[in-house]
Amino acid sequence: MRPLSGLLLSLAFLAAGTAGSDAQDSQPAKALASNYQLSDAVGERRCPITLETRTAPGGFALIIDREVCGVVFPHLSDVAAWRPAPARGINFVDAKGNIVTEFSEGVGGVYEAIRDNDGVYFLTNLKIADAEEIKFDDLVGDWNLSRPGGATICRITLTKDAAAEQRFAIRVASGCDAPIASFGLASWQLSNGDVLLYAANGDLLRLGKNEEGQWARVPDQKQPRPRPLLMTR
Question: Which end of the chain is more exposed for a tag (fewer CB within 10 A), N or C?
Answer without folding.
Answer: N
